[in-house]
Design a protein that fits this description.
It comes from Elsinoe ampelina. Keywords: Hydrolase. The chain is of the alpha/beta class. The chain has 9 helices and 8 strands. The chain has one domain: Rossmann fold (3-Layer(aba) Sandwich), CATH 3.40.50. Helix 4 crosses helix 5.
Length: about 250
């Protein structure tokens, strides 16, 4: 069974430039070496070893000028990346039960781990951002909750999954959303709610809409498809600009 939220899957070319390490009791991919600015990258269902995620983290590190941390938030789960990508591309022929594979990766189980990593970054860096894709989308909003008193300085998410309107309404830091037109997990009513509610919260808000693109384009789009490639580049550039602004160190 393939998750309804993940209709696209494509593995990008390139060689990640960071390193694997341990941070806050998690395996983590780290790239960049800025001592003042950090970005916590919360992965999608393909996990922390997905090459596309690491390549994107490298771009953020270089272009924002930040140290980017991509932790393993699916501990103990060996993600069969190629098999999962094939399942996304050919759902009718999929034999992989993605729901069973990720059955223990609930908000209740993973939110404490995500908060602990964010707290460690907050204690080490002057400015901290969080970016989340698909499964990571709800998580960045948990970090942005106003009751956390600035645990992160800003968030960005693309095609968020499992995100509720109540979670959006609690945001207390600048929010950026990349929303493709075709998305079963971030539906038109969710888009409308975000665009009405978030500007009323007294926080900076940036909404990026992608006509014709589908859920997953930001991390799993096919670069050989021109509209998908342009969307990926636009989303990356907009996220970089967002963090150049909100992670600036005075």
């Amino acid at each position: 069974m393939v998750l309804d939220c993940c209709p696209t899957g494509f593995k990008w070319d390139g060689q990640p430039e960071g390193k694997e390490a341990k941070y806050a009791n998690h395996d983590v991919y780290v790239t960049g070496d800025n001592p003042d600015r950090a970005i916590l990258y919360i992965h999608d269902g393909l996990g922390w070893k997905f090459q596309n995620a690491r390549l994107l983290a490298d771009h953020y590190a270089k272009e924002v000028g930040a140290t980017v941390y991509l932790p393993d938030f699916f501990p103990g789960v060996d993600i069969p990346i190629d098999e999962m990508i094939n399942a996304f591309e050919n759902p009718a022929k999929a034999t992989l039960d993605v729901r069973a594979l990720l059955k223990d990766q609930s908000k209740e189980n993973r939110s404490p781990d995500i908060h602990n990593v964010a707290k460690a970054l907050r204690s080490q860096y002057k400015r901290v951002g969080a970016v989340g894709f698909c499964w990571g989308g709800w998580a960045v909003f948990h970090l942005a909750d106003k009751t956390n008193n600035g645990l992160v300085d800003a968030i960005s998410t693309a095609h968020p999954s499992l995100l509720t309107q109540d979670e959006m309404a609690k945001a207390g830091v600048p929010v950026q959303i990349h929303a493709p037109e075709i998305d079963l997990m971030f539906k038109p009513e969710d888009k409308a709610f975000a665009n009405e509610k978030l500007p009323s919260l007294g926080i900076a808000y940036d909404y990026q809409y992608y006509p014709g693109l589908s859920h997953g384009f930001g991390t799993r789009g096919n670069p050989a498809d021109e509209p998908a490639r342009k969307g990926m580049v636009r989303a990356k550039n907009a996220t970089v600009a967002w963090y150049q602004q909100w992670l600036a160190v005075e």
